[in-house]
Amino acid sequence: MKYCLFQHNGHPEYGLVESLAGREAITRVLLKAPESGGDVEDVATRPIPHIPLAEAKLLAPVRPSKIICVGRNYRAHAAELGNEVPQEPLIFFKPPSSLLAPGEPILRPKISQRTDYEGELGVVIGRRCHKPSPDEDMRSCILGYTAVNDFTARDLQKQDSQWTRGKGFDTFCPVGPVVSNEIDPWAGVSVETRVNGDLRQQGNTRDFIFPLDVIVRYIAEVMTLLPGDLIATGTPEGVGPVVSGDVVEVTVEGVGTLRNPVRDE
Ligand code: MG
């Protein structure tokens, strides 16, 4: 299934997204949050007059207690920034206050001279997970997948010995447009980023250094993953700067395109 979070009659509601005659539309409202437990396919729904997804006022489709990011999970990207291929996953946080809805402007802070897009596959956690047993299937912790732009003040990231400032500004975590459980990153999912329509990044999750089960287990050994938590799984090669007036699009195969303009704050 695919779902979104959208503004409906003055309230945020989760909507079931279906393809109708080749166009995606919101056809039903979910009567409880999809990450609230149980099988997401069993969540009760109520039909609504169909709303084309392109016309809906979308919100970021996640409400995470935390956003955990993986750095350098594609060899070619590690190399392009002059870094060694890591021996174990490199993780860091973005604050939930950095979340941004599809279509909303990413604001470049005045104190940064260089802000970069990073198109990534996002993983949405579906159940509580902490210190999993060795035979526990990490896929069962995953509710679905989305697109994330791990937007970065690259100059500030390089100045600091850790990345909270460079990664953590408000609006630096666009997410969406939907969450889907219909894709299989282990089999390969393409992740592409365009700036003003020009293709800048073209990766595939087949090329992850650490597959998702390794990443989820690694994180869950450290901290309790909670339903709704978001993992940004690392960006392929081709990162680069954007300026005010640019439009960044992150396309995850089977999820859709996350589009945000860039503005100076
Ligand atoms: Mg990243």
CATH class designation of the largest domain: Alpha Beta
Query: Which series of helices and strands comes N to C?
Result: EEEEEEHEEEEEEEHHEEEHEEEE
Q: Which runs of at least 5 residues are low in confidence (pLDDT < 50)?
A: none
Taking Cα atoms only, what radius of gyration do you get, to the nearest Å? 18 Å
Number of helices: 4
User: How much β-strand is present in the residues?
Assistant: 35-45%
- As an assembly, this protein is single chain
Tell me the count of domains: 2
Kindly state the percentage of residues in helix: 10-25%
Q: Which small-molecule ligands are present, each listed once?
A: magnesium ion
Mean pLDDT: 95
Give a topology summary:
Blueprint (H helix, E strand, L loop, with lengths): L1 E7 L2 E10 L2 E8 L14 E8 L5 E2 L7 E5 L3 H6 L9 E5 L4 E2 L5 E3 L6 E3 L1 E7 L16 E8 L2 E2 H6 L4 H4 L5 E8 L9 E6 L2 E7 L7 H11 L7 E3 L7 E3 L4 E6 L3 E9 L1
Parallel strand pairs: 6-17, 8-14, 9-20
Antiparallel strand pairs: 1-2, 1-5, 1-14, 2-3, 3-4, 6-7, 10-13, 10-18, 11-12, 11-17, 12-14, 15-16, 15-19, 19-20
The protein binds magnesium ion (MG).
Structure commentary:
The protein is mostly beta strands and 265 residues long. It has 2 domains: 2-59; 67-264, Fumarylacetoacetase-like, C-terminal domain (Fumarylacetoacetate hydrolase, domain 2). The chain is built from 4 helices and 20 strands. The chain has helices spanning 75-80, 154-159, 164-167, 212-222; strands at 2-8, 11-20, 23-30, 45-52, 58-59, 67-71, 90-94, 99-100, 106-108, 115-117, 119-125, 142-149, 152-153, 173-180, 190-195, 198-204, 230-232, 240-242, 247-252, 256-264. Strands 1, 2, 3, 4, 5, 6, 7, 8, 11, 12, 14 and 17 form a 12-stranded mixed sheet that branches. Strands 9-20-19-15-16 form a 5-stranded mixed sheet, with no helix packed on it. It has a 3-stranded antiparallel sheet with strand order 13-10-18. A hairpin with a 2-residue loop joins β1 and β2. It is globular and about 50 Å long. The model has no long low-confidence stretch (mean pLDDT 95). The structure holds magnesium ion (MG). Magnesium ion binds next to loops.
